[in-house]
Amino acid sequence: MGVSLLSSPAFPRIFIFSFITLYLIPELALAGITRHYKFDIKLQNVTRLCHTKSIVTVNGQFPGPHIVAREGDQLLIKVVNHVQNNISIHWHGIRQLQTGWADGPAYITQCPIQTSQSYVYNFTIVGQRGTLLWHAHISWLRATLYGPLIILPKRGIPYPFVKPYEEVPIIFGEWWNVDPETVISQALQTGGGPNVSDAYTINGLPGPLYNCSAKDTFKLKVKPGKTYLLRLINAALNDELFFSIANHSLTVVEADAVYVKPFETNTLLIAPGQTTNAVLKTKPHNPNATFLMTARPYVTGLGTFDNSTVAGILEYESPLHSAASIRNLPLFKPSLPPLNDTSFATNFTNKLRSLASAQFPANVPQKVDRHFFFTIGLGTSPCQQNQTCQGPNGTMFAASINNVSFVQSTTALLQAHFFGQSNGVYTPDFPITPIFPFNYTNNPPNNTMVSNGTKLVVLPFNTSVELILQDTSILGAESHPLHLHGFNFFVVGQGFGNFDPNKDPSKFNLVDPIERNTVGVPSGGWVAIRFRADNPGVWFMHCHLEIHTSWGLKMAWVVLDGKLPNQKLLPPPADLPKC
Q1: Residue 320 has pLDDT above 80, yes or no
Q2: What is the C-alpha separation between 174 and 40, in angstroms, rounded?
Q3: pTM
Q4: Mind giving me the DSSP string for 382-414?
């Protein structure tokens, strides 16, 4: 057998139940059923790189369990907190139509789940199918609290590509030998950059290129002449990643749970928070060789980074080969782009196009009600008195959108909005354009200090939005993967340098742009997105490089209720955690 969801050693029992439900009891797997999961948050000793440490896990598993459902299903996921950390879980990419209370970011849509408390995340998957992920959404706990969220099409509806022989989730992560909570705590205290991770992982395993890790290697066992659907997920905290399999090409068929026009590539680029489904067609005959599949970072910033490579192994099954003889086969290594290959990154992202078919249309807003221009990037904050800080010129690192570094509330913003108690919690005056315009991608201004505040943008229901996200070179140009909660958006344009409102919009793609939930803002460039604010609630938007979120590169949108019942945010559940 090849590696299947069921046979993967890291595959949790919770999914086996779902698998049996889906495939052995088909009458229970009709569209629209309710699926129950239980997440027990508890400590577990895990060893990687010859270091054993106690980590926060779901059900003792690392990575966490696979959530599997079909489009139209309702999910009830009970999260019980058995650890001392506060916990919240985000279902990354799920629209959460009318169910913003289940979105998960701490102090945005909910207060976190405290020790010995529980909360049931209750939501229905509407109009979505594909690969997403779930992860903790408080501090840096998503370093170990993450897993795949797989949405199968409604029963009887095929993929718009060849049905695969098997489907394999491949989730990238980062491993620290120390506690990541200590890493971010120290960074925020000193004002400097954080210590980088010790390894990248594939399905929780570092692989043979790291010391003491040959036994901790993910192996994808395949048969000749078969088609495999790889569900690739980047759950790393701070790094975009290149990925390739030696001597094999991949056909990209989906990004962020939206089908795309298929295209072939030898290498993928995937940012934290992004997912990509790629079809792997194995060689027609056993090649009598094994093949490394590797991932390493795409780096554009000036800070330190984990300059290492994670590897798994692609093995062809053969009755002629024992485990010992497989080890003696030739091992081929892929060639990945240079660490700073922005040209490859640009060419790759430009290939991504929506299917834009009758069955899967690209409903791009053609008319825009509200235009926004957001600058994003790093900056500084003053060092506190009698303290020595390790940021630029003795300051503290900060990050901002339109020079506003977001101050996290101690109250959940969604509750404050829903109950009309926003006074003293947030203000609805987030700047829609930069307060102090400057030459964003050339010479930075002398003053790099950010302002601070809990400022939001308020949108009437169904407003069509165009947002320009402009990178800045204040402390060095850098690629930023921006994630918008509660919505998919269309990436209608991108370019380098400063966005030109007179020339650039004429080049926008309003026919078949890629639709996704996380987009990489080009280093030293800009990206233009459009979305329709058709989901009432409070929706977080932030850089998915965790250190930038910690430094304040985040904001939130308030979308008001519409007039019809299905356009209104539902009341909060009775077990919603309290602050």
Answers
A1: no
A2: 22
A3: 0.94
A4: PPPTT----SGGG-EEEEEETTEEEPPPSS-HH
Q: Which residues contact 238 (CB under 8 A, 6 or more apart)?
A: 174, 194, 196, 197, 272, 305, 545, 546, 547
Q: Is 86 within 8 Å of 112 (Cβ atoms)? A: yes
- SS3 string, 235-273, reads CCCCCEEEEEECCCCEEEEEECCEEEEEEEECEEEECCC
Question: What's the pLDDT score for residue 324?
Answer: 67
Per residue in 372-410, pLDDT tens?
A: 999 999 999 999 888 899 999 999 999 999 999 999 999
Question: What b/e string do you get for 406-443 counting C-beta neighbours within 10 Å, with b at 16 or more?
Answer: beebebbbbbbbbeeebeebbeeebbeebeeebebbee
| SS3 assignment, position 494 | strand
In three-state secondary structure terms, 449 is strand
Q: Are strands 537-543 and 515-516 parallel, antiparallel or unpaired?
A: unpaired
Q: Note whether 229 and 167 are within 8 A (CB).
A: yes
Which of 127, 69, 104 lies closest to 538, judged by CA? 104
Give how far the C-alpha of residue 540 lies from the chain's centroid of Cα atoms, to the nearest Å. 13
For 167, the token pair is 């489907």
What's the pLDDT tens digit per position in 61-96? 999 999 999 999 999 999 999 999 999 999 999 999
Angle at 93 between CA 87 and CA 98, to 5 degrees: 85
Give 380's strand partners: 397, 449
361-370, pLDDT tens digit by residue? 999 999 999 9
Q: Does the pLDDT value for residue 9 go beyond 60?
A: no
Q: Which helix (H) or strand (E) holds 331?
A: strand 331-332
Rounded CA gap, 296 and 267, in Å?
A: 11
| Residue 151, pLDDT above cutoff 80 | yes
CA distances from 431 to 279, 372, 404, 451 (A): 43, 9, 8, 12
pLDDT at 296 over 70: yes
Structure tokens at 399: 């990050």
Distance CA 134, CA 88 (A): 11
Q: What is the mean pLDDT of the chain?
A: 94
Q: How many CA atoms lie within 13 A of 333 on its CB side?
A: 8
Alpha-carbon distance values, 207 to 49, 172, 202, 203, 378 (Å): 10, 12, 8, 10, 33
